């Protein structure tokens, strides 16, 4: 029961501090899951992202379910999922209730402009860390750069990238391992 | 009551078929708007703005907002849970299967191929935020560079990479960003 509460609390924090959707939660996830609670490794987080990308639902929620399940089975999955959606539920309901034109308030806009810049720096620092541990060969770098280009510059959906990697792994998997 | 049930069903469907994260729910919401007129197209625009800039996954924020505006607090709670339910079930099933086949070389190979690519995907997500944060109206041109934001970004990158501060919780940097944004009137 205590573990379930811990899961709920950690993911509540993650949900409350995720600005800008799915991947933006990575710095928070690393901090809470990998460093603080040691519930999983960086590699596992990437695997969850890959799966979450091509299964239905929101990536942040999918990742929460995965981590929760790993820590404490089905109940853990449910606790983590409820944790990650709770802050939105409260914050958005309050905004919808109290403030008709929340986004028109000048200082709110200014705060969000500052937050977005901070989030950029945080994501960059996560990417650097991920790169260090996951990009060790030339073809790793080629994959990362190709994925970045097709999604960031050509607006391709990330689903295709993940599926393409899976297909390539079935075709070339053995060769790479031998080489 | 009927509206509440329809609301749940519509968001359940969205959660089941929206593959690829937050903004993938958008086409479903547009459809909902045209079919049920629970909210206007303009309200949907506001919802996206709020959903994108408040904390939390965008898809969840949208479900809560639409649920609240159509059916009050009960609507907000039920729409959100309906959206989450399909992926909760799907992921629990996959997680169970993954436990079983984790050591399978095919699966391990697959993840070895995916990890570098996902690193690239995260960089792409960061780039999307960067466009909005550092360029006016998210237009990538020299004229629309927001120099104040660029300067703040440089400082933030330095702070997050500085050894003494590296251990600081991400929340600290986010709070700092908010304060600086208000003080500078960004």
Indicate the topology.
The complex is a heterodimer of chains A (about 180) and B (about 190).
Chain A: H1 2-16, H2 26-36, H3 42-54, H4 59-98, H5 106-134, H6 138-153, H7 158-178
Helix pairs in contact in A: 1-2, 1-4, 3-4, 3-7
Chain B: H1 2-17, H2 26-36, H3 41-53, H4 58-101, H5 105-134, H6 147-161, H7 170-184
Distance between the termini of chain B: 45 Å
Number of helices of chain A: 7
- Number of discrete domains of chain A: 2
Tally of alpha and pi helices of chain B: 7
Oligomer: heterodimer
Overall strand count of chain B: 0
Question: Could you give the order of the helices and strands of chain B?
Answer: HHHHHHH
Name the shape of chain A in a single word: globular
Global outline of chain B? globular
Gyration radius of chain B, to the nearest Å?
A: 20 Å
Which terms would index this structure?
heterodimer; A: 179 residues; mainly alpha; 7 helices; 81% helix; B: 186 residues; 0% strand
Structural overview:
The complex is a heterodimer of chains A (179) and B (186). By secondary structure, chain A is mostly helical. Chain A has helices spanning 2-16, 26-36, 42-54, 59-98, 106-134, 138-153, 158-178. In chain A, α1 packs antiparallel against α2 (26-36). Chain A is globular, with a radius of gyration of 18 Å. Chain B has 186 residues and is mainly α. The longest helix of chain B is centred in the middle third of the chain and has 44 residues, at 58-101. Chain B has helices at 2-17, 26-36, 41-53, 58-101, 105-134, 147-161, 170-184. Chain B contains 7 helices and no strands. Chain B has 2 domains: 2-101, no CATH class; 105-184, no CATH class. At the A-B interface, α1, α2, α3, α4 and α5 of A face α1, α3, α4, α5 and α6 of B.
